[in-house]
Amino acid sequence: MQVEIKIDKDCSEPKVIIITDEMTDEINTLIKNVSQTTPSRLVGYKNNTATLIDITDIFKIYSASGKVFAVTENSEYTLKLRLYEFEERVSNAQFVRISNSEIINFKKVKHFDMGLTGTICVTFSNGSTTYASRRYVNKIKNYLNYEVF
User: Fold this and answer.
1) What is the reported pTM?
2) Burial, 17: exposed, middle or buried (Cβ in 10 Å; 0-12, 13-18, 19+)?
3) Consecutive 10-residue runs of the chain (149 residues): their mean pLDDT?
């Protein structure tokens, strides 16, 4: 694959042009990766106050009692997104679903404890923990591209 970059001072927005003789899986993957934009912030609500949250500050997103929550180092916010909507928005980012009700930020994970039967204990850099269900172990493996599990 050839890659060509042209710097134009008059360009107001980046533009990608793909020239190919046929559509392949590689081209489809390239299109998907280039066209996905990950939001850098979300709006979280706490005590009738809306706060902009940088997604890199989020440790985990989880659902409970019909609501979706975002947990950061110092606080927990309610989101107006569904869990699957958040997952779709950050599908190419560092977030991975670890259970039916939880998505974690892998950049905030300190280590995994696989001593428990049926689940994996995830410890975050701030010392908090959560559990991944066995059903999602393959997603974790795929994300890490590592065969420890």
Assistant:
1) 0.69
2) exposed
3) 82 81 85 68 91 92 95 94 86 81 93 75 92 83 61
